[in-house]
Specification:
This protein has seven helices and six strands; from the N terminus they run βαααβββαααβαβ. The chain is of the alpha+beta class. The chain has a four-stranded antiparallel beta sheet. A two-stranded antiparallel sheet has the order 5-6. Strand 2 and strand 3 form a beta hairpin. Helix 5 packs across helix 6. The longest helix has 10 residues. The C terminus is likely disordered.
């Protein structure tokens, strides 16, 4: 698996307590027209079919097909991947290379992402040009139950919110 350097987004920290959907609302996608699984599925019509994951699984993991070789990118974080191996899982690859993606965090959860990051601790993850590092002391106060968001995965990044809404229930 190879990554393609792209501009991307990282999760903002929601001050409300609750589940992953509240903490990671997916309200600022890089490709708003691709918010629905169905819209992403339509991009895979000419997918080269050399991996076991289905087109639907790739779309559910947030990817849309770029119609060049086996290149895909995430509708939310804009993280792009190519050179898929036969048995690679789209969710694991997405979490491995782009652990800050709010789409992955929302749908798979913080524990899943932490486990993937721990398993691939030495992965050379890309730095996104559109990220803005914010010192931890400037982040909003979180309930104690959510401190692991910052300290275990080290998501000390925030993005500015826009009015775009992408409900992925």
């Amino acid at each position: 698996m190879n990554i393609i350097q792209t501009s991307g987004r990282t999760p903002s920290i929601n001050q409300e307590s609750g589940g992953d959907e509240e903490l990671f609302p997916c309200s600022d996608p890089c490709s708003p027209a691709m918010c629905s699984i169905e819209s992403r599925c339509t991009t895979f019509r000419e997918w080269p079919n050399h991996i076991l994951a289905s087109r639907r699984e790739l779309a559910e993991a947030g990817f849309l097909y770029l119609r060049e070789g086996d290149k895909v990118k995430c509708f939310y974080c804009n993280g792009a991947l190519h050179r898929w191996n036969l048995n690679e899982d789209p969710w694991i690859e997405h979490a491995k290379w782009f652990p800050n993606c709010e789409h992955v965090l929302r749908h798979k959860g913080i524990t899943f992402v932490e486990d993937v990051v721990a398993q691939f601790r030495n992965a050379a993850r890309p730095a996104h040009a559109r990220q803005r590092r914010v010192p931890v002391e400037h982040l909003p106060e979180l309930p104690r139950s959510h401190h692991h968001v910052i300290f275990h995965i080290k998501y000390a990044y925030v993005i500015q919110r826009t009015r775009t809404d992408c409900s992925l229930s």
